[in-house]
Amino acid sequence: MDRPAVLSRRLLRIIDKTLPDHFNNMQSLARENGRPSQLIRYWLPTVVGVLSSTTVLRILINRQDEIINWITNLGGTIRDFWFNWVVQPTTKIIRTIRHDSTSDIAIMSRDSLKADRESLERMVVDFAKDKPHFAYEGNSSITDIQLAEIRNKVAEGDVTPVLRAYEQDLRSPFV
């Protein structure tokens, strides 16, 4: 007979019959015998604890000052960690966000934001003066009224002349 066929039949019998039977037998054994009592489970740790308790107490009493010093140092370390790595960085972040004058850094002050907006306004207006056909299609020049209108739009966030030029450059980038 063919050896692989025999081997495969044996494996199938083990998987289909032997393993489930073994599992059921182990469960019935566990039900019959049950878990050992607490006395049997914990007698050894209890005896070791009772016999070594005097030695442990003697060590604790002899090294009482060192233990108190260790606990004090541990408390100081935990306190320092909490303040140096949690509280202090959090307060610095809050000061930075609130633009506190004692903060080391600031994300952006209100004055710098105002200066940036004014600079953007000047750049867009200068661009509109230089290239009026992007500000108003078909115009070769731009009036003061139109420049004032562009300033107002830039203050609201509308930079249409620059975006029109950008769109034009995207259509034909190498011209």
UniProtKB/TrEMBL annotation:
Source organism, top-level taxon: Eukaryota
Primary localization: mitochondrion
Membrane topology designation: Multi-pass membrane protein
Short name of one Pfam family: NCA2
Heme as UniProt keyword: no
Keywords, alphabetical: Membrane, Mitochondrion, Transmembrane, Transmembrane helix
GO cellular component: a single term: mitochondrial outer membrane
Localization annotation: Mitochondrion membrane
Listed name of the protein: Uncharacterized protein
Species this chain originates from: Photinus pyralis (Common eastern firefly)
